[in-house]
Amino acid sequence: MRRVWTLPVLLLVVGGAAAAAPAVGGNPFEAAVTLGVFVLLAGVLSPLAFPRSIGAVEAQRRSAVDGRPVVFWRPGCAFCMRLRLRLRMRLGHRARRMYWVDIWRDGEGAALVRAADGGDETVPTVLVAGRAYTNPAPARVRELVTPAG
Questions:
Q1: CA distances (Å), 46 to each of 55, 61, 63, in order?
Q2: What are the transmembrane regions (predicted)?
C-alpha cells in the first residue's frame, strides 16, 4: 500500500525543496510555479489519476458478464498514464467503465500479468475476452472497447 504513494510523496518533498530556494531568494512567483509543477506531477502519477481499482478476480468475473476489458496497471507507470490519458481523451466517460486492476495492490492481478507476459510484470496489460494484450497502443484498446462501450 505504501509504495503506491512513494513517488507522489517524493515529488511533493522535492518540489517543496525546489520551491524553497526561489521563495527565500525573494521570488514568490517562481516558487509558486515550481511547487505547482511538482504538485501536478505528483497528482498525475498518483493512484488518484486512475479509476478506483478492483481485484483481478472480481474484474474478470464482471468482464465475463458484460465484456468490458480489464486493464492491469501500476502507479508511476508512464505507459499506463499514456494509455489512461489517451483513452480518456478519445472515449470520455467510457474509459472509466473498463475494469482497472492495480497490480501493486492485488497479488492475483500481478500473478495474472506475470502469466500473460512470460514472468514479467509488464503493464499496462489489457485483458479482453480472455486474451491478453501487453502494452497495447491506445488506438488498439479503443478498437477493442468501442463495441463494448
A1: 18, 27, 25
A2: 29-50
C-alpha cell belonging to residue 64: 465475463
Question: Which three three-digit cell numbers place residue 63?
Answer: 468482464
Tell me: the pLDDT tens digits for 89-122? 777 766 677 899 999 889 999 999 999 988 899 9
Three-class secondary structure of residue 93 per DSSP: helix
The closest of 35, 42, 69, 38 to 145, measured between CA atoms, is: 69
Pick the CATH number of 51-145 from 3.40.30.10, 3.40.50.280, 3.90.190.20, 1.20.1260.100: 3.40.30.10
Query: How does pLDDT run across 1-34, given as a tens digit for each residue?
Result: 567 788 888 899 999 999 999 999 899 999 999 9
pTM for the whole thing?
0.70
**How many Cα atoms occupy the beta-carbon half-sphere of 103 within 13 Å?**
22
d(Cα 125, Cα 7) in Å, to the nearest integer? 21
The domain spans of the chain are 2-48, 51-145
Interatomic CA distance for residues 25 and 27, integer angstroms:
6
